[in-house]
Automatic annotation (TrEMBL), chains A, B:
Its cofactor is Mn(2+); Mg(2+). Belongs to the isocitrate and isopropylmalate dehydrogenases family. Keywords: Manganese, Metal-binding, NAD, Oxidoreductase. Its EC number is 1.1.1.83. This is D-malate dehydrogenase (decarboxylating).
């Protein structure tokens, strides 16, 4: 019996409804694979922020460090500005634990038609750089409050940062046996993106087993809609990966089920897994949130912890559930979070 | 009879095939509206670059300045890096002539089904900031050639730059009578995008007749696929506008017919009109390029010059042509550039 300590941060809104569902699934699949999960709950959230003035306590990161992985629901709350909630919790965790890969698989499931006439079979993974790039604290304003006011923000790309995420993407493409696409915009962003391209080219040259191409982000966004099946692994900067992964989830008609892994591939620190959807204040408290985004995130966690057999069990159960099981309203059904979770547990 | 001097820069590849077609259309519609066009051709291109080492002559901008508007085909050529061709022609023109609005209408035409199950009726305009923002020369590298190498690039947003493009978008939304959506990413880009949001909010507060909302670029990209009909005028930064407008053209299934206007709304300088598609070296020289992107760009030009009746004639002819006229291969037809142009001239 292997035991894992999992830090659970349900967060706000529907985050508090979907994380418990995913924990149940982990317990069920764990029982079949001789894995034990010890969950520690943390109430870090915007709700806590309005009460105590901080998203998490000063020793928050240290407490997380005692765990093998983190399961996050969603943070966000009407009245608390996004840049407070995110830069007070999500982004510090990504950086403190050097979770430099943001992994976002996107699939068109058989039972989920999606908005495109013809996207069935789409099965891709976006590997997003998760610690540097366009998301940078460097910047500020000048001449505030005057007509001459301006703001600057500096994107910062390091050779080390690009190399490691590209290498990760190459490993993944090699494993999946298909191809790698690198998102760029070297024709517009003439300092950072040519640097990105150079390193991509260098790394790919050392990996002849993977076929690859580079595509400008504008064209790539259009092609994801026109020809989504073509793509396998896409490697992108922090901002481009953010945009492409939401876009691809939209293309698959599955924002409610899309997961995201914030991963330290070297396993020096706990990695963090979360659904892509937000806290959805509009439906919070009604018990109708789709738990499958968090369940899929839990499957990514199992995979990361080295249990790909357990992860596959969860994915297979999800596939079957999506084909003919009950669905929450976001997928056109009328089932509750509990009903979907029950049905999934039955399938396991 | 009003006379306009039009600078034509066909550029490379299919640019040289579609610009003459659009000039014919301008002549035809001009004849019906008492407008005369005097075209001056310029061979500025990557082809010129490989021959003479520069995309345009040193006095290029001065020569353009003598014209009322510019019609550009496409630049780009295998072997000439994008950042050379673009920063040697397209981007200097945008900036020297302070063409601070990049206008990109996107429509789903009846006869052009596109990749989405249900996008018919989509009719939106992207108003992209076209001179500052993320496309910036400020930046460089440090520790080149060492493992510590890094590159930085500074986005620069000015109050003046944001205000004027937002005001333009508000005017347009007011005129179209629907709504304004502002693309942001203030939760990730914490210096520049909150500044953008502040100014959008200020300007919109003074225009109660326009209903508006702000949407993060990642969510907006997904929603453009899921619910494209919802959008009317979208205002966005240089980079976000670039991504969204290609994406929206993809959604409409019409990259081959999408136009772009680089506009100085104050009319101090010539504005520049171009199709969104590139030079397409793969089909260049075959006479099968779709001329409608450039034709639609010419309609935007007519509108900008104050002849919206002439512009409407062109658009109506295009609509009819797309419903049941001949089509080039990119739209699934077998017609040539000449055949499509002829058919359009007949409809005019
Ligand atoms: C070619 C490139 C520099 C250009 C841009 O990004 O502005 C193009 O994509 C466009 O949209 O006109
Ligand atoms: C909420 C936001 C800061 C975050 C991001 O952009 O990284 C989110 O969109 C995501 O993709 O996890």
């Amino acid at each position: 019996m292997t035991t894992y300590r999992i830090a659970c941060i349900p967060g706000d809104g529907i985050g508090t409804e979907v994380v418990p569902a995913a924990c149940e699934v982990l317990e069920a699949v764990g029982a079949a694979h001789d894995l034990e999960f010890r969950f520690t709950g943390f109430d870090w959230s915007c709700e806590r922020f309005t009460r105590e003035g901080a998203m998490m306590p000063p020793d928050g990161l240290d407490r997380l460090r005692e765990h093998d992985a983190i399961l996050l629901g969603a943070v966000g709350y009407p009245g608390v500005p996004d840049h407070v909630s995110l830069w007070g919790l999500l982004i510090p965790i990504r950086r403190a634990f050097d979770q430099y890969v943001n992994l976002r698989p996107v699939r068109v499931f058989e039972g989920v038609p999606g908005p495109l006439r013809d996207a069935s079979g789409t099965d891709l993974v976006i590997v997003r750089e998760n610690t540097e790039g366009e998301y940078s604290e460097v910047g500020g304003r000048m001449f505030s409050g005057t007509p001459d006011e301006f703001a600057v923000q500096e994107s910062v790309f390091s050779r080390r940062g690009i190399t490691r995420v590209v290498d990760y993407a190459l490993d993944l493409a090699d494993e999946r046996g298909r191809s790698l696409t690198s998102a760029t915009k070297s024709n517009g962003l003439i300092h950072t993106m040519p640097f990105w391209d150079e390193i991509v080219e260098e790394r790919c040259a050392e990996r002849p087993s993977v076929s690859w191409e580079s595509e400008h982000i504008d064209a790539l966004a259009a092609k994801l809609v026109l020809d989504s099946r073509k793509y396998d692994v896409i490697v992108a900067s922090n901002l481009f990966g953010d945009i492409l992964s939401d876009l691809a989830a939209g293309v698959a008609g599955s924002i409610g089920i899309a997961p995201s892994g914030n991963i330290d591939p070297e396993r020096r620190n706990p990695s963090m897994f979360e659904p892509v959807h937000g806290s959805a204040p509009d439906i919070a408290g009604q018990g109708i949130a789709n738990p499958l985004g968090t369940v899929w995130a839990a499957a990514l966690m199992l995979d990361h912890l080295g249990h790909d057999d357990a992860a596959s069990d969860v994915i297979r159960a999800m596939e079957r559930l999506l084909t003919d099981g009950p669905r929450t309203p976001d997928l056109g059904g009328g089932a509750t979070t509990t009903e979907v979770t029950r049905a999934l547990l039955d399938l396991l």
